[in-house]
Amino acid sequence: MRIAMIGTGYVGLVSGACFSEFGVHVTCVDKDAGKIERLKRGEIPIYEPGLDDLVARNVAAGRLSFTLDLKEAMAGADAVFIAVGTPTRRGDGHADLSYVYAAAEEIAAHLDHYTVVVNKSTVPVGTGREVEAIIRRSNPNADFDVASNPEFLREGSAIGDFMRPDRVVIGASSERAADVMRRIYRPLYLIETPIVLTSLETAELTKYAANTFLATKITFINEIADLCEKVGANVHDVARGIGLDGRIGKKFLHPGPGYGGSCFPKDTLALVRTAQQAGSPLRIVETVVEINDARKKRMAERIVAACDGSLAGKTVGVLGVTFKPNTDDMRDAPSLDIVPALQAAGATVRAFDPAGMHEAERLLPGVEWTKDAYGALEGADCVAILTEWNEFRALDLKRVKALLKRPVMVDLRNIYNPGDMAAAGFAYSSIGRPAEPKNV
Ligand SMILES: NC(=O)c1ccc[n+]([C@@H]2O[C@H](COP(=O)([O-])OP(=O)(O)OC[C@H]3O[C@@H](n4cnc5c(N)ncnc54)[C@H](O)[C@@H]3O)[C@@H](O)[C@H]2O)c1
């Protein structure tokens, strides 16, 4: 099999590399000449564990290559995947489909044999049909079908998620297209991965339903955490107590500063707009979006409160700025709300992140970036943990205490234990847990 992958971002590059590992010949195309140059030199433009080895191995085997030229990539391809960005459109919350539609126009110009045009980007219901219409208009004689194959990988564990997914969803507009998709995913059929074969519209909606459900689950446990604080309960025990119920499940029940990242914020908003437009509003998701936005903004207040109600002239040491560990992705990270709010309250912010600082420098002006976690704490009035990177989980607390002006820690990811922190002499606050655990 031979495929072209349009877009070498977090999804396109990982999917392309993983398909090549399956034995498919993959040519990845991007408009960004800098990215393609780096990839050709063997450099990986994003931080994703294991991706460098996977890419190097498949490039060496001759199954994976990179180009700026879509015509070259589509020559002899059984399918061309669209994996370009679908950010929030400015002003109205709808998904911005301009990159997807531009890719469809470009594909139309190079279709010279039967090819399946596969949408891997997260796109609202109806986009696949629109892609089909664009190609038909532009190249009426083209021999093609459109398929939808939404991607469920998570940044930070993207390769494992792609190679051993819980399921693959394929929306196909013809049996011929479904057959090509089955052949591309053959290695997953062999490991008995469930394949949900459905219509274009259903596949498109399934992706949004999955992401908005997960965002709802996070928001639910965040609100339960707030209630725990008021009534003296422990949110982790509540999460375990409910999560062990197979109908609920343990995952996505970890409280925090609100969901962020490149998918949940834009996808919840886009589905809200789709549903409103269809005259079938999703009131639950509308509320989730509202609660989450307000939550991210409120997190800075916790840090102010931990610093005796004022940050004027104080320094906050921030650990982690990416929306989650093991990625350099800064899109919609809670830090983008929290850090400016701290600065607006008069604080100097000194911060460290293992992978996100390069991107964050541009997005968070005025922050003093340090070489390691301890550098961010030197002379600070308080430390705030915003991302649960592994290297923040076992800090040398004696050293932390010695570096800080006062031993104050605000842990928005609950990676420390309140009892241990109290014993170590910290004024410690976290999410949804009593400061001193009771009955333990
Ligand atoms: N990031 C994730 O974890 C994730 C997970 C599942 C689904 N998705 C979805 O996948 C899609 C892609 O997301 P991403 O995070 O990989 O985006 P990204 O911004 O990292 O990458 C998109 C790439 O497409 C390139 N591009 C845009 N138009 C192009 C064109 N016409 N020709 C060639 N290249 C073009 C850009 O230069 C960029 O490199 C989105 O719809 C997103 O919602 C993302």
Automatic annotation (TrEMBL):
Pathway: Nucleotide-sugar biosynthesis; UDP-alpha-D-glucuronate biosynthesis; UDP-alpha-D-glucuronate from UDP-alpha-D-glucose: step 1/1
An example Gene Ontology molecular-function term: NAD binding
Catalytic reactions on record: UDP-alpha-D-glucose + 2 NAD(+) + H2O = UDP-alpha-D-glucuronate + 2 NADH + 3 H(+)
SMART domains named in the record: UDPG_MGDP_dh_C
Enzyme Commission numbers on file: 1.1.1.22
Enzyme class at the top of the EC tree: oxidoreductase
Protein name: UDP-glucose 6-dehydrogenase
Organism of this sequence: Azospirillum brasilense
